[in-house]
Amino acid sequence: MSTLKNTLKKKIEQHRPRTTRLLKEYAGTKVGEVTIGQAIGGARGVKMMVTDISYLDPFEGIRFRGKTIPETFAALPKVPNSDYPYVEAFWYFLLTGEVPTEKQTLEVVEDFKKRREVPKYVFDVLEKMPEDSHPMALFSMAILSMQQESKFVAQYNEGMNKMEYWDPTYEDCTNLLAKLPSIGAYIYRMKYKDGKQIKADNKLDWGGNFAHQMGLDAPYDDVARMYFILHSDHESGNVSAHTTHLVASALSDCYYSLSAGINGLAGPLHGLANQEVLRWTMNFLEKLGKGDDYTEDDVKKALWDTLNSGQVIPGYGHAVLRKTDPRYTSQREFCLKHLPDYPLFKLISMIYKVTPDILVEQGKAKNPWPNVDAQSGVIQWYYGVTEWDFYTVMFGIGRAIGVLANITWDRALGYPIERPKSVTTTMLEEVAGVSSAELAGSAK
Ligand code: CMX
User: Fold this and answer.
1) Helix axes 206-214, 87-96, angle to 10 degrees
2) Nearest to residue 151, comparing CAs of 163, 128, 167?
3) What is the pTM (predicted TM-score) of this model?
4) pLDDT tens track, the chain, 444 positions
5) Cis link prior to 219 (omega < 30° from 0)?
6) Residue of the CA atom closest to atom 46 of ligand 1
7) Atom of ligand 1 nearest to the CA of 41
8) How far, in Å, CA of 289 to CA of 303, rounded?
9) In this structure, are residues 315 and 361 in contact, taking their beta carbons and an 8 Å threshold?
10) How remote is the CA of residue 278 from the centroid of ligand 1, in Å?
11) What is the C-alpha separation between 221 and 83, in angstroms, rounded?
12) How close is the Cα of 363 to the center of ligand 1, in Å?
């Protein structure tokens, strides 16, 4: 058994009694109350999921296994001659909560390489899809097409003890994760580079090989590592993480579950916002027609036009965060180091300067600050990835790290099928002490 799997096994055995005790002795203890606002309003803030892999504080932002983003980057072993860590080390860290040594990391790097090869039929499926399919539809389809590879399903069908579920889930998740960068790069080159594909380089790590197969030189390998780690996990309630968890809770395997999570990430209020940010910005420049000769007032007017036409400003606001997203800050720091004078970065910075005040003045958004998506596209653009409808695929490759680690733990701790309760509008009116007859009267 690999060091990672063995460490994970020990961690699972240590953890199980904690969950069992809470369930046996404290199942009736209240965690919070649910209001009518939460029942109608997307369950915002309802504490009804458990994960130890990351935690999102509204003001501080994300911590992975207790570490902030800068602490995470500083702690993990780095790829030689790179500023960023091995993504494989991060996978080890998310799964076990332990920072791996260099040796343990390289063991995972080698394990991923062995699992990297994508079955040919996946590419056949992609090639048969309509030419104008969105890259996210292709990505989701590619993941789903591998479902019959599931070791979990094979062992389940043979008859497997519930305590063993985590083992084939771990195997499935690792097999799937190892292939995702090659699938993403294939989609990119199939759609935008005349289908001229680049073979994987087995000397390279997961992030480095993605850059290689995309056809992009250093430091894009570091951009990829940074991007994947930053987008990995954002606790459990966001649409992609929650969907993956929900589908997996029916004991659907990781191919079904991740494909579903990716479909949720493809929505413009979630992961697709990163493509929307670039689309908004390029539209702004095109409509203005003055090249880089714009003023703060031009930007303000365009933002107000967006709001006044009933649309959202992409890349701003968040369901949990109430401050600038540290994932935004981390990418901004990258830009300040590598592309401080790049005109598009200056425009993104100007939007950052003026947008929060405008959203506050409008008075609707609870959080006027930027999220991760406001700052990611400019980096891609700078390094030549200007096809913005591909951006969410890269978000999805990163997000897979977090959600696959989570469903492995879901199986390890025996979390049951998820099934919250719905009520009717009349029931809510009864709780509120109002009647719909009054409303019908006032509408006359
Ligand atoms: N621009 C304009 N209006 C916004 C806004 C924004 N950026 N953010 C929130 N609002 C509006 C909401 O649409 C809502 O309006 P209504 O009352 O008319 O329905 C109101 O402000 C209150 O919303 P909220 O409680 O502040 O935000 P929610 O938790 O409902 O939604 C989010 C959060 C992210 C969907 C929302 O802020 C948004 O639409 N942002 C723009 C899209 C975006 O950047 N999404 C990416 C989020 C990060 C990610 O998942 O990748």
Assistant:
1) 140
2) 167
3) 0.97
4) 999 999 999 999 999 999 999 999 999 999 999 999 999 999 999 999 999 999 999 999 999 999 999 999 999 999 999 999 999 999 999 999 999 999 999 999 999 999 999 999 999 999 999 999 999 999 999 999 999 999 999 999 999 999 999 999 999 999 999 999 999 999 999 999 999 999 999 999 999 999 999 999 999 999 999 999 999 999 999 999 999 999 999 999 999 999 999 999 999 999 999 999 999 999 999 999 988 899 999 999 999 999 999 999 999 999 999 999 999 999 999 999 999 999 999 999 999 999 999 999 999 999 999 999 999 999 999 999 999 999 999 999 999 999 999 999 999 999 999 999 999 999 999 999 998 877 766 665
5) yes
6) 270
7) 30
8) 16
9) no
10) 17
11) 10
12) 12
Measured between alpha carbons, how far is 142 from 146 in angstroms, rounded to an integer? 7
Pairing status of strand 54-57 against strand 61-64 = antiparallel
Instruction: State which ligand 1 atom lies nearest to the alpha carbon of 317.
Output: 37
The length of the chain in residues reads: 444
Residues 6+ apart with CB under 8 A from 415: 50, 249
Q: Which atom of ligand 1 is closest in space to residue 44's alpha carbon?
A: 29
- The residue annotated as part of the active site, out of 134, 212, 245, 270, is 270
Which residue owns the Cα nearest ligand 1 atom 48?
Answer: 270
Q: What is the CATH number of domain 273-382?
A: 1.10.230.10
Q: Which residues line ligand 1 (CB under 6 A)?
A: 44, 238, 269-271, 273, 307, 312-319, 364-367, 371-373
Q: Does the annotation count 318 as an active-site position?
A: yes
What number of other Cβ atoms are within 10 A of residue 311's Cβ? 12
Active site residue 172: no
Out of 366, 392, 393, 395, mutate this one to test ligand 1's pocket (max ligand atoms within 8 Å of CB): namely 366
Whether the CB-CB separation of 391 and 139 falls below 8 Å is answered with no
Alpha-helical segments (H) within 27-81? 36-40, 69-75
Pocket test for ligand 1, best of 277, 280, 304, 316 (most atoms within 8 A of CB): 316
Q: How far apart are CA 189 and CA 401, in angstroms?
A: 23
Among protein residues, the one with the nearest Cα to ligand 1's atom 10 is: 365
Q: Among this protein's residues, is 231 annotated catalytic?
A: no
The active-site residue, picked from 231, 245, 318, 410, is 318
Sorted by where each begins, the domain ranges of the chain are: 273-382
- Of the candidates 241, 249, 112, 262, which has an alpha carbon nearest to the alpha carbon of residue 176? 112
Give the Å distance between the CA of 441 and the centre of ligand 1. Answer: 33
